Amino acid sequence: MTKNQGTPPGQGPVSPQPASTPSADTAPGLTIALVVVLTGYALSIVDASIVNVALSSINDDLHGGPAALELVVSGYGLTFALGLVLGGRLGDAFGRRRLYAYGLAAFTATSALCGLAPTIEFLVTARLLQGAAAAMLVPQVLATIQAATEGQARARAIGMYGATAALGMVTGQVLGGMLVSLDVAGIGWRSVFAINVPIGLAALLAVRRVPPTKADAKPRFDPMGTVLFGVTMVCILAVVVAGPDLGWPRWLWSLLAVAAAAAAALVRVERALEARGGSPLLSPSVLSDPGMRRGLAAMVPFSAGFGAFLFVYALVAQGHFGLHGLASGGVLTPFAAAFFVVTLFTPRIAAALGRRIVTLGALVQALGLLLLALTVGLGWPHPSLVLVLFGIGLFGVGAALTGPTLFRTILADVPPAQAGMGSGVLVTSQQMATALGATVGGTLYVSLAGALSTVSAAVFVLALLVCFAVTVLMISLKLPDPG
């Protein structure tokens, strides 16, 4: 990693770093720093899903009830999504390594609290705090990569970031099922949280190997922008998270009008603040960059499709075929393997194809989803396992070609001084779209399965995901080449 302290070109000299700072020319230094930051990121992603398979055991032990168990899952996602942009901005102001260390320490401590929870109320509170800690550390990962690397080193690092995100989502449920089944040290469900503690502590011991980066001029606090952004996010998240459980009442939909009004006010406030030379929470000039704007437009259907696929797959695998934990996760092995292998070559492919790599990835994803739809529709109730695995593998290949390249495109022209803000916006969009995709896909599947049949519902959702992939393909035709 380089010694760039986050100064945009033309705004003054770069502050010198201590001699101990890892250099971009030192492969071991780059590797260790990347492993450290990706470790914290992996923990945050895995913890979004690892608890799912432990809910029954938690209910038996703490007697929480459906509403409380829902908060154990969704509470983490709520505070995580709410705090990402602010966490990125704080990293720009006070140093990304410092905020990463604070966030990782808090995440490790709150994981321990989750594992020690004596009551369901305690566990819900600890999960809310754990999500807030994740929001502090996660934006620093991409921001550090963006501010401290360039060229092929950045492409490789972002590729590994994308692999970590995808593999974390897939392996969380598998790892949770394994830990609960093994009943490590006789602590049952508590092991899904306890496992974070030694891993987090190990990463904390090595955090000094991460290069310190921040904006030379500390951004000022933007209270009005922060409040308006928070209102917008809370209203949208309330609809996405609570809608399925509450049955989509009319009053819940009214929150979208509140969100729209708050978002419109946010745009006006941020533009006015930037025009006065202030430090908006969300920089309009950065967000209006073609790479950022079009990349986010493609990221939303890409992430929504991914979230819907994983959620509906779990419903079909566990509800119809009776697969649980390790078994249902094992069927996703082709996705994980294909994604990881292709990610290793994505920088070279991107260098040769430019933005067309996203077009290729979306096309491969669409073909994989079409194969799955035909296999399920024509082979139900016993579809060919070989064709299912092959279709899932194609889906993984397409995701590996598309995801990391979109990350690079979105962040390509973000000034290093605003890398935290840019990465916060990116991850927030990714998380929101993933949650929205899971909600919409799950609701459609359950509704259609009740009205028609399981196979019709599964095929319909897969066809919808093909439409998402085609949308990404169409947007990719106007994307700038990744930086």
Give an overview of the whole structure.
By secondary structure, this protein is mostly helical. Helix 9 packs parallel to helix 17. The chain has three domains: 21-212, Growth Hormone, Chain: A, CATH 1.20.1250; 224-281; 283-483, MFS general substrate transporter like domains (Growth Hormone, Chain: A), CATH 1.20.1250. The chain is built from 18 helices and no strands. The protein has helices at 27-46, 55-62, 66-94, 96-116, 120-148, 151-182, 191-194, 196-205, 223-246, 250-275, 284-287, 290-319, 326-331, 333-353, 356-379, 385-411, 419-451, 454-476. 55% of the residues are buried.
Précis, in short:
The chain has 18 helices and no strands.
